[in-house]
Amino acid sequence: MNRTAHRRFSTVILIFGLLSLAEVASAQDYVSGHGALEVWDEAGRAGVPLWVRIWLTILQLTFISGLVFMRRNVEARWAVGGFFGVFASAVLSQSLTDIVPLSGFIALLHVLFWSPALYVLLSRRPFLKERSIYTVWSGFMTFVILFSFVFDIPYTLVYFDHLLGLGLLS
Description:
Layout: H1 3-22, H2 42-46, H3 50-65, H4 74-96, H5 103-124, H6 133-164
């Protein structure tokens, strides 16, 4: 593991540790749902509006389709890595800590793991190069992350406000 990867891994572990210390409530103290302070579980996913289900399917297919482009494109590697990083972190957090899987926590994982891909996509702008399947994918991938962040960033802020007990946003 190189130094940069080690630092990122250590940062993620530190964040999980701090969040698990801060999260004192149990899942029974929350209702299932898709709001920032609701548990994102099977019941929560089942209760989302149809447009959200469609959006989640599009999002997942866009990230997973990046597997096709990973060999030759660093942006695809960052996007796919971030997608699987969210999944692995969510699974690990459930098995290793007492973090309640609130939607705000999942949004935080999105912001943490998808921001590097967004940075690479916006700084390198592959979607502005000669038209190809990859440039279309990279443009749509950029849109998917940006649109997701419209919800993820506010949810993350509400989640941190809740963890810190400030009560400013909830």
